[in-house]
Amino acid sequence: MQTRTPRHSKAEFKRRGEDIYERLVKPILQPEDKGKLVAIDIESGEFELARRGYDAAQQLFARIPDAQIWLARVGHPAAVRLGFGVSRGGTAR
Known about the structure:
The protein has a domain at 10-73. It has helices at residues 10-25, 53-63; strands spanning 37-41, 47-50, 69-73. The protein has 2 helices and 3 strands; from the N terminus they run αββαβ. A hairpin with a 5-residue loop joins strand 1 (37-41) and strand 2.
C-alpha cells in the first residue's frame, strides 16, 4: 500500500477543495447526484463522483496515483458525520 503525504496545509487543502468544487464540480451536478461523494485532486482539479467516498477516491487514484484528495458530499456542508445523532423524531440514527 502506497503511503501518501499531504503537500499542503489543512487551510490550503480546504481553500483549494472548496474553490474547485464551486467552479468545476457544482455547475455540472444533477439532482440525482445529491448525497454522492466527490473526490477532488486539489492540484489538478480532476475529480470522481461515487456513492461512497472510498470508491470515488480509488477511481481518482487509478488515474492520478499521487492525488491530493479533498472529499465533499454533494448537497451537504460536510463529507461525513461523526458521532452519535438523534433524529427529530427522537430516535437514534
